[in-house]
Specification:
Strand content: 15-25%
Structural class: alpha/beta
Number of strands: 22
Number of helices: 15
Largest sheet: 7 strands, mixed
Shape: globular
CATH architecture of the largest domain: 3-Layer(aba) Sandwich
CATH topology of the largest domain: Aldehyde Dehydrogenase, Chain A, domain 1
């Protein structure tokens, strides 16, 4: 597998010769070393992407021609599914029993959907204009240009495919920067793109920290920035990119609420909300605030404590593990800081709250449920990004529950659990979030994903996600 950067159609070492040591979070030991790029590498990658867009064939190929190359890349990605699975277990700490289905197969389905959508022209004809000179008009969608894509560590292969598929199939060129914690899936994708026949400069992959990310956002040769990550970093990116009026696609933080109505089935609620331990709680759209009506509170909490207490936390390489470690020692300290803050604020630890006793020296924390949480507490307001659930009581009045769900600066996702589905849908329509489910926790591969408020700008996936990577032109011409 590639352990080199991908710039202008070549595999390269980092200009400065620096190496990035990547930890296996299950053991705390280094599992591999890859090149660590710096500003000069970012400059070379941006230059290559700019030339590939301005002078290369890629933007001028037909959608069908580009899609054929992207299909070749997709086939290679599928052939390397086992390699990707292993990289995700080693670098992210996702349990091996879950890695293939969640982190490899699902993003592949998204990839194929986006490529097929992009294989067709996106132009839309408008009604002809009658008059002395008969006139035709059409809305044309054209590639934006050079796209900088900055991807987080929690779902790295997901986001690599979510961003490269729509950007490239619509004719853009890209510089992709993976997170320092999980660089290898992106480096492998870059090498496979070369094998698939993606032209030089169309997809460049550069590792690195802020010294790489900053020019990817500020450089005038970049036309668009797509970023998934924290709200704080997203606001900085928006500020820097806004100076050059760059197009933005930002998918940022979440503090999603599951609103339980009084007629809901307690068992169904527990089964649904247990997804807060998925990916060790390191997911922006997970339900981390559980709004329980007084009448159901104790019954749900009792079941929840029992189920959470039975989750097997352990080494991601062990097939029996249900929840693996957090991604790094620093991130574990951050999550533990929030747990301490919740205790200091007067919330009750119903289960968890510490580190499990294990033989491995990885970055583990117990799945934790807080009760007696006030929605004004820090643990209820800020994204913890770990397996921590806040249970918040309310009277059972729908208006109060909806108000609590909306009492957040973030609005990425939400859920409603109800016996009366119609009442659940009515409540869901009032929740200000980009995705709200009712008595469900799955969705199709083509549903748009993104948030309200400080959870971001724009949408990924589906037709809307594809069109985010295009500019709109109104083209008009007369018949003579």
């Amino acid at each position: 597998m590639s352990e080199q950067l991908v710039i202008d159609g070549e595999l390269r070492d980092a200009v400065g010769g620096n190496e990035l040591a990547v930890d296996d979070p299950s053991t705390g030991e280094v599992c591999r070393s890859v090149p660590r790029g710096e500003a000069a590498d970012a400059d070379a990658a941006i230059d290559a992407a700019r030339r590939a867009f301005d002078d290369g064939p890629w933007p001028h190929m037909t959608p069908a021609e580009r899609a054929e190359v992207m299909r070749a890349l997709g086939r290679l990605v599928e052939e390397h599914a086992a390699d990707l699975e292993q990289l995700l277990v080693e670098e992210l700490g996702v349990p091996c029993s879950l890695a293939r289905a969640i982190h490899v197969d699902r993003p592949a389905a998204n990839y194929w959907d986006l490529v097929e959508r992009g294989s067709r022209a996106l132009d839309t004809p408008l009604p002809p204009i009658e008059g002395p000179v008969p006139t035709t008009q059409v809305v044309v969608r054209e590639p934006r240009g050079v796209v900088s894509a900055i991807v987080p560590w929690n779902f790295p292969h997901f986001l690599n495919l979510w961003k490269t598929a729509p950007a490239l199939v619509t004719g853009n060129t890209m510089v992709l920067k993976p997170a320092l914690e999980t660089p290898s899936p992106a480096l492998l994708l870059g090498r496979l793109a070369l094998e698939a026949g993606v032209p030089p400069g169309v997809l460049n992959v550069v590792t690195g920290g802020p010294d790489v990310g900053e020019p990817m956002v500020s450089d005038p040769r970049v036309d668009m920035v797509t970023f998934t990550g924290s709200t704080g970093v997203g606001r900085h990116i928006a500020s820097v990119a806004g100076a050059g009026m760059k197009r933005l696609l930002l998918e940022l933080g979440g503090k999603s609420a599951m609103l339980v109505l009084p007629d809901a089935d307690p068992g169904g609620v527990v089964e649904a909300v247990m997804r807060f331990v998925l990916n060790s709680g390191q997911g922006c759209a997970l339900m981390t605030r559980l709004l329980l009506p007084e009448a159901l509170h104790d019954a749900v909490v009792d079941q929840l404590v029992q189920v959470v207490g039975g989750v097997k936390v352990g080494n991601a390489h062990d097939p029996s593990t249900q929840m693996g470690p957090l991604v790094s020692s620093a991130h574990r300290e951050r999550v533990e800081g929030y747990i301490a803050a919740g205790i200091d604020a007067g919330a009750n630890v119903a289960v968890g709250g510490g580190r499990p006793t294990l033989d491995d020296d990885g970055y583990y924390v117990e799945p934790t449920v807080f009760t007696e949480v006030d929605n004004a507490m820090k643990i209820a307001r800020e994204e913890i990004f770990g397996p921590v659930l806040c249970v918040i009581r309310y009277s059972g009045e729908v208006d109060e529950g909806v108000a609590l769900a909306n009492d957040s600066d973030l609005g990425l996702a939400g859920a409603v659990w109800a016996g009366d589905v119609a009442a659940g849908i009515a409540a869901a329509r009032r929740i200000r979030a980009g995705k709200v489910t009712v008595n469900a926790y799955t969705s199709t591969i083509d549903g748009p994903f993104g948030g309200y408020k400080l959870s971001g700008v724009g949408r990924e996936l589906g037709q809307l996600g594809l069109e985010e990577y295009t500019e709109v032109k109104h083209l008009v011409w007369g018949s003579r």
